[in-house]
Amino acid sequence: GGGAYGAAKAGGSFDLVRFVQQPQVLARIVSAVFALIVFACLVGDGYTSLPENPKLFCIFNGNEDACRYGIGIGVLAFLACIFFFMVDVYFPQISNTTDRKYLVLADLGFSGLWTFLWFVGFCFLTNQWSWTQLGTVYIGADSARAAITFSFFSIFSWGLLLTFAY
Fold first, then answer.
1. Mean pLDDT score across all residues of the chain
2. If residue 84 lies in a helix (H) or strand (E), which one and from where to where?
3. CATH architecture of the domain formed by 24-164
4. Which end of the chain lies in a sparser environment, N or C, as judged by fewer CB atoms within 10 Å?
C-alpha cells in the first residue's frame, strides 16, 4: 500500500495468485470473456442467407452496420483487455509516477468510452433485433440474443473497470 496511483513501490517479486485475486484483474478477465462472446456470436452466426438467395446478410434486420458495430467493439474491447491486463502485470515494476499516471488515465478514459460504446451497442442491437422478422432467421437467433445479452453485461463490467481506474 501507500504507493503512487494504486500500486506499491516499484520492484519486488510477482505473485500470480495474489495478482489474479485483484478485483480489477478479475473484472478485466470478465470483460474480455464478454467481449469474446459478443464478437464470436456475431462472426459465427451473425450472418445468414435465405434458401432462395445465397447472399449473406446480417441477422439484425439485415443491417450490416449492426453486425459490424458489434464485431468492432467486441474485438477492440478484447484487445484492450489484453493490453491493459499486460499493463496490470507490469504496473508494479514501473517506477516513474508520470508513466503510472498516464497509464491510469488511459485506462480511465478507455473504460469510460467503452462503457458508453457498449451501451450504444446494446441499444443498437436490441433495436435492430426488435425489427427483425424471425421468419428470415433460421439459424443464429440464439447467437443474436447472446450478443445482445453480453453487450448488456459488458456495460456493467466496463463500468466496474472505470470505477477501479478512478
1. 89
2. helix 64-90
3. Up-down Bundle (1.20)
4. N
Where do we find the cell 470483460?
Answer: 31
43: cell is 462472426
The label of the residue with cell 477492440 reads 76
Residues 69 and 47: their CA atoms lie apart, in Å, by 13
Single-letter residue type at 12: G
Grid coordinates belonging to 121: 451497442
Q: In sequence order, which residues have a C-beta less than 8 Å from that of residue 41 and are 6 or more positions away?
A: 143, 144, 146, 147, 150
Confirm if 100 and 7 have CB atoms less than 8 A apart. Answer: yes
Q: What is the pLDDT of residue 6?
A: 55
Burial classification of residue 144, based on how many CB atoms lie within 10 Å of its CB (0-12 exposed, 13-18 middle, 19 or more buried): buried
Cα gap 160→166, rounded to integer Å: 10
Whole-model pTM: value is 0.87
Q: Which of 142, 161, 149 is nearest to 38 (CA)?
A: 149
| DSSP-assigned beta bridge partners for residue 22 | none
* pLDDT band for position 77 (cuts 50, 70, 90): very high
Q: Residue range 96-111: average pLDDT?
A: 91
